[in-house]
Write a structure and sequence with these properties.
The chain has 262 residues and is of the alpha+beta class. It contains 4 helices and 10 strands; from the N terminus they run H-E-E-E-E-E-E-E-E-H-E-E-H-H. It has one domain. It is 34% helix and 29% strand. 31% of the residues are buried.
Length: 262
């Protein structure tokens, strides 16, 4: 009985080995390329959403700003402001929205996002607490670590510095469409940040659409809705307490938008 033993072709085996090695290298390279591509897509996603929006556009349900997807309160929201910075060390994206009904600006929303590429100079947020806030809650506000706070406040729709451009856009859109725009908004501001990213969201209501201002004033102003002014008027306290409850219930939406961002 003859035992047949097939000796493999060493040339063929060498060729197969090379092909396997090349294939492994190619697959490894593909994984690297895929990882790099994923990082690129994440960075690209930061810039794309805000740029894809247009002033005057109407949206519902949610909005994407700088890689964060933020749910919207019920209603049809109009984009009145878009601003994006391509600073390689600290890119930011900002979007302003209004909710109009019956030619009256009923609500306003402002979303500001930022990314930090160097992770240095991270300081506590200076506006977690202010004497004029109706309510404030600071979960964390640490240097070089996590920042989470929110508060109920009045916001004057005037200003200088960073806010002046946004307020000018709001005024322009309101004038062009014949909307009644209040001088102040009342509502919540949320601030979430760590060394890599920041999400700041403001949601405000038009107090003139809720409570009539005295005839002598015509419309409400910022100083009419400070903590002291609210404490002196039971009607205002009821209104702000109601909005505080709504804002507490809305807090998880901001937390999720921050934690689930790219």
């Amino acid at each position: 009985m003859r035992l047949l033993i097939r000796i493999p072709d060493m040339g063929l085996m060498t060729k197969m080995g090379i092909e396997m090695a090349v294939g492994s290298a190619n697959r490894f390279g593909q994984r690297i390329r895929t990882a790099v591509l994923s990082v690129f897509i994440a960075l690209f996603a930061f810039c794309l959403p805000a740029a894809a929006l247009e002033v005057g556009e109407t949206i519902q349900d949610s909005v994407s700003v700088g890689g964060f997807t933020m749910p919207l309160p019920a209603g049809v929201w109009t984009v009145y402001y878009i601003n994006q910075s391509d600073d390689p060390e600290f890119p930011t994206a900002k979007v302003g929205l209004i909710l109009e009904r019956g030619k009256i600006v009923r609500q306003a929303m402002y979303i500001r996002t930022a990314r930090a590429t160097k992770h240095t100079g991270f300081k506590p947020y200076p506006y977690c607490e202010r004497p004029y806030y109706f309510y404030e809650e600071t979960l964390a506000n640490q240097a070089g670590n996590v920042q989470q706070c929110w508060h109920m406040r009045a916001e004057a729709l005037t200003g200088d510095g960073e806010s002046s451009e946004r307020y000018a856009s709001l005024l322009e859109v309101s004038k062009r469409n014949g909307y009644f725009l209040p001088l102040t908004m009342i509502g919540a501001r949320y601030h979430f940040a760590n060394r890599s990213k920041t999400l700041r969201v403001s949601i405000g209501w038009n107090p003139d659409a809720i409570l009539r201002a005295p005839e002598s004033k015509k419309v409400w102003r910022f100083e009419d809705w400070t903590a002291d002014a609210i404490a002196a008027d039971p009607r205002k306290k009821v209104i702000m307490t109601k909005f505080k409850k709504w804002s507490q219930d809305w807090l998880p939406n901001v937390e999720n938008a921050f934690s689930q961002s790219n």
